[in-house]
Every structure is written in structure tokens, then in C-alpha cells.
Amino acid sequence: MAELRTTFAGIKSPNPFWLASAPPTDKAYNVVRAFKAGWGGAVWKTLGEDGPPIVNTASRYGSLEVGGLRMVGFTNIELITDRPLQVNLDEIKQVKRDWPDRALVVSLMVPCVEDSWKTILKKVEETNADGVELNFGCPHGMSERGMGAAVGQVPDYVEMVTRWCKQHTRMPVLVKLTPNVTSILGPARAAKRGGADGVSLINTVNSIIGVDLERMAPQPVVAGKGTHGGYCGPAVKPIALNMVAEISRDPECAGLPISGIGGIATWQDAAEFHALGATTVQVCTAAMHYGFKIIDDMVDGLGNWLDAKGHAGVGGIVGRAVANVTDWQHLDLNYKTVALIDQAACIKCGLCHIACEDTSHQAIAAKKAGSERRYEVIDAECVGCNLCMYACPVTDCISMVEVATGKRPITWLEHPNNPLRQTAK
Amino acid sequence: MDDIAARRLGADELERNFADIHVPLDRKRALIEASRCYFCHDAPCLEACPTGIDIPGFIRKIATDNVKGAATTILSENVMGGACARVCPVEVLCEAACVRQAQESKPVRIGALQRYATDWLFERKLQPFTRSPATGKRIAVVGAGPAGLACAHRLALRGHDITVFEARPKAGGLNEYGVAAYKVPNDFAQAEVAFILDIGGIRIEHGKALGRDVTLARLRQDFNAVFLGTGLAGANALALEGEDMAGVMDAVAYIERLRQAKDKGALEIGRRVVVIGGGNTAIDIAVQARRLGAEDVTIVYRRGPQQMGATGHEQELAQTNDVRIKHWAQPTRLIGHKGRLKEVELEYTQLDERGRLMTTGDRFTLPADMLFKAIGQNFVASPLGELLELSGGRIAINADRQTSLANVWAGGDCVPGDDLTVSAVQDGKVAAEAIDRALRA
Question: Fewer CB within 10 Å: N-end or C-end of chain A?
């Protein structure tokens, strides 16, 4: 089978699947169970400064259910670890000793004071952990205390803290980025300037996952009130993919290793992140939903797929799709597709027709011969938008077929309708 | 054990045998099932429903926990949506048309979802309907079965006052007296009648039979309009010698006794039972005979499984209740001893080259302590007293369910068409709207 061993920012792991810093990595018990199940690495749940431990609420998670599917989106208002610092450090040291081949990275969040970072970095070094991940991402709770996303949203702070950390430790320093910014490139470039060995993204998205209409309060409800939380799970994957791609194709961030995070539940999800430039991926919600055993198919499925595609290892696909991510203005406006309905597969639900008729281009005719329904694409009206293909509940019933126009490719930059078009000299 | 006896089974077993045959969907299951609906455009299921219930519409409401809205959508088109959810042959109507049937041979369980919504409303005793202002018009409805009650309900909604004349002590028609007990347990038919009457404006006079206690001529004089929903009063006979001997029974009459029996154990049933017929009544009597404790029950039908009036689903129900279905045979002789049935002689049948049914000459006998005739019912026209045009032996109607008499409408089993509760409800509803239009003209 294809080689799944990965080196990310100098950190080795037997496969690219790490557990993200989160409740599943809060203590040795969980992490050891994960390693036994086959996870390639883990980022230990964020440690804070020594002192009175953090206090958490009862009722911490909220879930978005869509069409009967549970946890399509997930949110939490949990803070960093609520266990004493030394307990965590002792456990990290023991786990690393017992599992030397796995990546064990420690997530950190302390106040924006150089000494605070210096102090905790020394303590983490003593555990022999493989690296640290700076938590500049959590959008809730800690951000009110000037940490987490409050740092991650200010590129100058990101750069400053990263630089401190690089000065005060020999360990690789990963910077975990918050998606709660207008452009991910600000903090990503700052991390690079600060000397980061890699970035991991995305952290959770600021959100209210739902409103309890009985209690008239945002979920999760804590004694009648709620607060914004960190959104994750399959629903955030598109946001994460875009941000990973933005960094991958940014010349200033060139060479910055990426650990992809956000809604990864299967090996296909992982492969998409790899294709957009991630060297490793981190998983949380899927494990919280189904337990650690999902790793079996992730490893197996990715390996089988790489074999089928003729890749010797994960490295063969990292960044492979980046060159095809471009700006809208570079797309070929003469490229044409039309919908094709496989009449033999059609179950006559009419969803393609009504979607096109009510909300798009009136390009699917509803015909009726006696009681027999038939839906036919009107090629001349079809703009190739894909809507019918997605509304159709039957797999592969509607396909989008490329139509030869005989016209040469043309982008908006050259298009006659563009007043600012570039004309050939 | 006697050949015909009561109490073949203990009270506990009988209670289990006649309890609800279907486990209702709870909320969680209903939500999962509702999520399977594609919310089709111009939905085939809707087209397949004789009452035209907006099926995708009510299922979507279930999916959003708007169960009251779902029930109201159903009951607006079919006020007996609760009974139909239990007795409709959905496997040949809405569920047969479901696109998921085409896709994966597993339709959305529309009947079960309809029951979930209507049960929800009934359990909470909610009344979604209110009557329009009183019109002062009076309409006579003959027969308190599905057609009559559906007509009465719709007319009452439109503000008219209705008097229903019903020969039997209870309303509900076949839902009360005919359908297999395990399909409508817990006195459901009466709960539905109460729901229908709850809107007001409907008075039922029990013990009033057409032709005996009231006449059509008098009703036409005393009321602004008349709706006939009398059903089928006659049972078809085998036309064999000895049909009057002990042990030879009419299935419909027996089921009626069974439905009304507080103590099912008191009913006498044969040890070896033969049922003649191929419709749902044949299945109903056969399965219920088994569930009363009959040891061997055989349905004999003169044609094949495809020609049976009973749906495939019903045939399967018979078979899983250990009822044997013997196709291509018909009875030729009833053999008794001292006035009691002992055996049935049957002859094999087949189709000739022109597709006509013929006997082969080969005969065989089945031991039988009881034989149930379930070969259909017929319309008895004599109580009408007046000359109403008939069609195929039943009351002729136009698209509005209007008869050949100007102020008389009819529907249900006494008119041509499918003998289904859902069709009867549609007849009553359509007639009511036509009557309302006529009275306002």
C-alpha cells in the first residue's frame, strides 16, 4: 500500500491523521485510546498558565441537524483544559515515552506576555513533545480575556508571539489560525514572518448554532442563557478548504507547511485538503461523533485510493489541485455544458423541473404522455448551472455534458463586455 | 375438540391476536420516514390518492414538527384520513406511485405517516375545522358510513344542517362493522365519528332504514337535498345446494358479529375453515378465523394471485398468518352430515384459449367444519322506492355524484367504482360541494 508516513514541519507521524486539540485529546486516557486505534498524532488540548485551573460550564455543545442527519455542524463553548498544568505535562511526557512513533504536539494559550510564553515553553520541552501549536483561534471565552482569537485576529500580535516562541524553544512552532477574519492571508503571512514552522487551520467559526425556541436562548443553553461558540463539523469544510487554498496559492506564504482542519470525517475529505496543499490533517468532530475507530477506514481508504491513482505516498497529492484554483476573472467564459437527463434512471420526482422552472432558467420541460411523466432539458435554454444535477435525488441521473462551441477560450480580462478588457497589443 | 367451538384460544392470546396489527410511528421514526420524502413536484402519490391529499405537503409538515398542520392538510381533503391511514390499500395507491418505489422498491411509508399525524391530532382532541355561517338549508344523508359521514361533514362545514338516517345502532359503516378488527382496534371508528360530529350541525337518527322507516320520496320533500350512501346490502350466494346447512356462513355477517363482540372468545369458529373468494373480505375472514383459533384455514379462489381483488400485501398477510391460498378452483358441492357441513367438493379451473374461465373436470374435496362465502356483495335497489337510474346494478351518477333525480346525490359502495373507504370519502366530499353549489345557486 502507498506510503502514509508524513513529516510535517519536522514532525514525523505514521499517517497524516492527527487528532485536533480539543476534548478528545484532553488527557492521556483518551490519547492512548486514539493511538491504540491507529491515529498518527494528536495535538493535546490547549494548556494555559499555571495557576487555578479554568472552569467550564455544564452544557457545552450544540449540534446542527439537517434532514435527520445529526451533527452536520457542531459548536462548543468549552474553554482550554480545566485540569492542573502539571497533571497534563506529566501525562504528555508519559504518552510520548510510550508512543514514540506518534506525533504529539501541545497546544498552548497564555497571555500576550513574553515571559508567559517563555515559561510554558520550557515546561513543555521537558515532556519531549514533538512541537507546540499556538492557539490563536478559539473565538469564545478565552478571547474575552485577550487570548485565542483576540490574538489571531491581529496579524502583528500573531507575528510577535510566534517570534517569541521561536526564540524560546527548539521545538517546531505551529500557529493555529482563526477563520474569524476578513482574509486569512493577514494572520498566515504574519505567522510566516514570525518564523512559524507551519500553520494549522481552521479553528472554529464564531457562531450561534441555533436558538432554543422554548427557552428563547441560544444553544447550548446554560441556566437560561447562551453565548456564541466555536462552529465545526462537516458544515465548515468549505470554509476551511478555501482558506487552505488561499494560503497555498499565496506567494508570500510559499513553503509554509499546512495542517488542514475543518469538517474532516473521511479519507476523501482528507484527500481534498491534501490536494489543496495540506501535509497533514486534524480531526475532531467526526471522532466525537463516532469514536476513534473511524481512523481505520481513513487510513485504509486513503491508502487504497492512492494505490488506485498510482501515487507512492501522500506526498504525491499534496498541493496537486492548487494550480487549478484561480480567480473568477481567469475562467473560460466560452466553456459550455448542458444538463443531460438519463431517462432510464429518472424516477419522475420533478425536482429538476421545479428547481429550474421556479428559480433558474426554465430549461427543463415537464411533459406528460397520459399518466407518464417525462422531464426534458431544453438545450437552448440551459446555461449549465448544475442546479438540477444537485436537486436530483438519483445518483448519476443528471450529468452535465460538455458542449463543443468551436470558440476559443476567453476570460473576462479579454471579454468584449468588459470595459477594462486587456486587448492584444 | 369440537368441529365448531368457542374459546379455542385463551383471553390473553385473543387480545394479542386482535390488537393493533401495525406499530404506530413514534416521533423519531416519523421524522426519519418523513425525511425520506423528496417533496416531489406534481407528486405522483398525490395523483394516486382518490381524495387528492397533498401528501408531500403534509409529510414536510411532519418533518418540521408542524404535526397539527400535517393533520389539517390530510383531514381537509379526507376527513376519514385516520381510518384510511389504517385501511387504505396504500400498496396499490399512493405508495405504489411513490418515486422511491421506482428508485429502490421502498416507498415512503405514507400511510404510517398519515396515521402519525391524524393520531397526534385525535390524541390532543384538537378540532381544526369551524363551520361557515348557518345557511338554514337542510340535507338528508342516508347511511352513516364513510360516504355519508364525509358528505355530512363537508356540508356542515359549509353551514348547512344535516340529518343522517342510519339503520344500525352505530355510525361508521364498514369501519365499525366490516374492516378486520386488528386494523382499527381501540374503538377507532367511534373516535373518528365523534371527531366528525364535533363540528356541529350533524344529527344522526339511528334505527332508521331507507324503505322501512323513511322513504326517498319523503326525504326529497322534507329536505333541500338528499345524499344516498347506503352501501351494499346483499351478499352474493354460491348457488349451491345446501347453502343453508349449519357451518355455511356469510363472511360479512360473521365479521360484523366479530367486530361487535366484546368477548371475542364467545364466537364459535370451525376447526377446519374454507373461505371462498379472492377479495379483501376473504383475507379478512380467513386471517381472523385463524386468530380466533381455527387450525386449518384455506382460501379457495377460482383464478390466480394476479386476479385476486386482495392486494399482494393482503395475500402476504394471509400467508404469514398460516392461511393457505388455493388458486384455480371453485366449489361444486357442499357435503354435509345431519345438517352440518363436513366437506367441500371443489373443481379445478383454468382459462381457455379465449381467456374465459372454465372448469377442468378434475375434482377434489377439502374437509370443512365451516365455510365462509366472501364472493362479494350486491346493491339492493328496492328500498329506494323511486325510479333511480342504475348502472351496473348500482346507482348511476355523474361526475358531481348526482343521480338521475335532480336533488339526489349518491356515493360510496352503492355507486359504481372502487369499493374503498377512500373512494367513498371522495364521493361524499365531491357530492357535498356539488350540493352546496346547487343550494347557493
Answer: C
* CATH number 3.90.226.10 is the correct assignment for the domain at B236-373: no
Buried b (16+ CB within 10 A) or exposed e, A103-123: bbbbbbbbeeeeebbeebbeb
> What is the C-alpha to C-alpha distance for residues A18 and B338, in angstroms, rounded to an integer?
88
Q: Give the whole-angstrom CA distance, residue B367 versus residue B271.
A: 10
Sketch out chain A's domains with CATH numbers. Answer: 6-324 (3.20.20.70), 328-403 (3.30.70.20)
- For residue B41, the chain A residues in CB contact (below 8 A) are 349-351, 353-354, 366
Domain map (residue ranges) of chain B: 23-123, 138-233+379-440, 236-373
Half-sphere exposure of B210 (CA within 13 A, CB side): 26
Per-residue tens of pLDDT for chain B, all 441 residues: 468 999 999 999 999 999 999 999 999 999 999 999 999 999 999 999 999 999 999 999 999 999 999 999 999 999 999 999 999 999 999 999 999 999 999 999 999 999 999 999 999 999 999 999 999 999 999 999 999 999 999 999 999 999 999 999 999 999 999 999 999 999 999 999 999 999 999 999 999 999 999 999 999 999 999 999 999 999 999 999 999 999 999 999 999 999 999 999 999 999 999 999 999 999 999 999 999 999 999 999 999 999 999 999 999 999 999 999 999 999 999 999 999 999 999 999 999 999 999 999 999 999 999 999 999 999 999 999 878 999 999 999 999 999 999 999 999 999 999 999 999 999 999 999 999 999 998
DSSP A182-247: S-THHHHHHHHHTT-SEEEE--PEEE---EETTTTEESSPBTTB---EEEESGGGHHHHHHHHHHH
Residues of B in contact with A351 (CB under 8 A): 38-41
B181: DSSP letter: G
Bond from prior residue into A220 cis (ω within 30 degrees of 0)? yes
Contact B42 A67 (CB under 8 A): no
Find the residue in A nearest to B44 (Cα). Answer: A349
For domain B138-233+379-440, which architecture applies? 3-Layer(bba) Sandwich (3.50)
pTM of the predicted structure, to 2 decimals: 0.88
**Which of B49, B99, B104, B105 is the best residue to mutate to test the A interface, defined by the most A CB atoms within 10 Å of its own CB?**
B99
Domains B138-233+379-440 and B236-373 share a fold: yes
For chain B, say whether A350 makes contact (Cβ under 8 Å).
yes
Contacts of A371 in chain B (CB under 8 A): 47
Q: Which of A323, A348, A233 is nearest to A287 (CA)?
A: A233
Q: Report residue B198 as a C-alpha cell.
A: 364535533
Active site residue ranges of A:
138
The H or E element spanning position B285 is helix B280-292
Question: What whole-number distance in Å separates Cα of residue A333 and Cα of residue B145?
Answer: 66
Q: How far apart are CA B429 and CA B151, in angstroms?
A: 5
Bridge partners, residue A281, by sequence: A17, A260
Residue A369 pLDDT: 86
Distance between start and end Cα atoms, chain B = 67
- Note whether ipTM > 0.90 here: no
Cell of A355: 428547481
* B126 and B34 Cβ atoms separated by less than 8 Å: no
Q: What is the pLDDT of residue A141?
A: 79
Measure CB to CB from residue A68 to each of B35, B39, B42 and give the nearest one.
B35
- CA of A351 to nearest chain B CA: how many angstroms apart? 6
**What is the topology classification, in CATH, of domain B23-123?**
Fumarate Reductase Iron-sulfur Protein; Chain B, domain 2 (1.10.1060)
Cα-Cα-Cα-Cα dihedral sign, residues A245, A250, A254, A257: negative
Is some CB atom of chain B closer than 8 A to the CB atom of A365? Answer: no
Side chain identity at residue A65, one-letter code:
E
What integer best gives the mean pLDDT of chain A?
95
